[in-house]
Amino acid sequence: MPPDSPPAAAAPDLLTSPPTLVELFLAFAKMSLAGFGGVLVWARRGIVDQHKWMTADEFNETFALCHFLPGPNIVNLTFVFGSRLRGLPGAVAAFSGLVGPPALIMVVMGMLYHRYGEIDALRRVLSGVACAAIGLMLAVVFRMMTPLLKRRDLVGLLTLLAIFVAIGVFRLPLAAVLLVAIPLSIAITYATRKEAA
Amino acid sequence: MNSDANPVFTLAWTFAVMSLFAIGGANSAIPEMHRVAVDVHHWLTDKQFTDVYAIAQLSPGPNVLIVTLIGYSVAGLAGALVATLAMCVPTAVLALFVSRFLARSSHARWPKIVQAALVPLSIGLMGASGFILARTSDRTVVAVLVTVAAAVLASVTKLNPLWMLVAGGCLGFAGLIG
Q1: Same domain, yes or no: A10 and A93
Q2: Is the pLDDT of residue A10 over 50?
Q3: Which end of chain A is more exposed for a tag (fewer CB within 10 A), N or C?
Q4: Residue B95 to chain A, least CA–CA distance (Å)
Q5: Closest by Cβ to B147, choosing from A83, A103, A135
Q6: How far is B148 from chain A (nearest CA, A)?
Q7: What are the tens digits of pLDDT across the range A141-161?
Q8: A74 in the same domain as A40
């Protein structure tokens, strides 16, 4: 943490002096470039701990909202957050900071891959990285499944399995599957909650 | 690239629609990205797709930036820009409207039910992502062991994931993954 971060007691008044657009851009660029394998941890650190732009609860609520909406969560969060502080220009500044610099890096990686992607050593390295990356994704899947298993949420687990088979095994188009699955899952959840209440 | 339309338009349309169905985040859309990029449009081979996924994981920034790489492979810089914006902007604007609406309304019960209903779908999608990538990558015993080891280590330790990616890369370089 940099030495210039204010002491914990000083709660800044965001309404009278919100961060400037440049500050927003730089703060989000920094969080994003620090975030290997996911930016969420760094976003929480930057927004809540370092800049004190949100309390931990506000951050959790906003993230929960962005998590149940479609699309890249962290991008949604950044956009919503930027607009709260500085309207649409704030949203654009924070978004550009989050996505711009790492996207440039990605383009450079793309160029390198196109030039050198056929080199045998690089192919082997990327195969190894991919194997580990898949493991990391499976760890997230298990972590998210644990609450369902603990609750013995049979309906939830069957829904999960059905989606896995439809998308992963039968390779059906995502939109078609979800246009059926989302209303169905909401209806079932609503019905079971009503029963429980 | 064997689609008849201009690939940049195809990218824009494809990713804009896809983003609206990416519940749980960008990783939930990996199976659809694979279906579109490998099976439908033949923009990438199976191996190139997993390479692109590996590169995206190795690089800093949000996971969604895998679409930047896919876009770049299809149509260079324009493709990278268009794919990235198409995947990010529609849902970001949607999130903005919903957050403003929720701030003003008292429909507090609905988001909870919708959220609970979406969680299993999102887990199923991510499981499918892992499965589809593993079909291409995990073809040897050592490869499977690396995947399992990374999954276990990430579940039971606080080890920085980057080290596991680096370890996987080293094993690959040594020719052990096959």
Answers
A1: yes
A2: no
A3: C
A4: 6
A5: A135
A6: 6
A7: 998 899 899 988 899 999 999
A8: yes
Return the structure tokens found at B92.
Answer: 């970001």
**Contact (CB<8Å) B31/A168:** yes
What's the domain range around A139? 118-147
- Whether residues A23 and A77 share a domain: the answer is yes
Q: What total of structural domains would you count in chain A?
A: 3
The per-residue pLDDT string of chain B (178 residues; one tens digit each, 9 = 90 and over) reads: 444 568 999 999 999 999 999 998 899 999 999 999 999 999 999 999 999 999 999 999 999 999 999 999 999 999 999 999 999 999 999 999 988 887 766 556 667 788 888 889 999 999 999 999 999 899 899 999 999 999 999 999 888 888 999 999 999 999 888 7
pLDDT reported for residue A15: 58
Regarding whether A177 and A139 lie in a shared domain, the answer is no
Tell how far CA B108 is from the center of its chain: 30
Task: Select from B15, B27, B51 the residue whose CB has the most chain A CBs within 10 Å, as the one to mutate to test that interface.
Answer: B51
Q: Where are the domains of chain B?
A: 7-106
Is the same domain home to A21 and A104?
yes
Tokens of A29: 């660029």
Which of B60, B133, B173 is closest, CB to CB, to A128?
Answer: B173
Question: How many contacts, defined by CB atoms under 8 Å, are there between A and B?
Answer: 358
Asked if B92 lies within 8 A of A173 by C-beta distance, the reply is: no
Which residues of chain A have a CB within 8 Å of the CB of B18? Answer: 174-175
Closest chain B residue to A184, measured at CA: B117
Cβ contact B50–A130 (<8 Å): yes
Count CA atoms closer than 13 A to A165's CA, side-chain side: 7
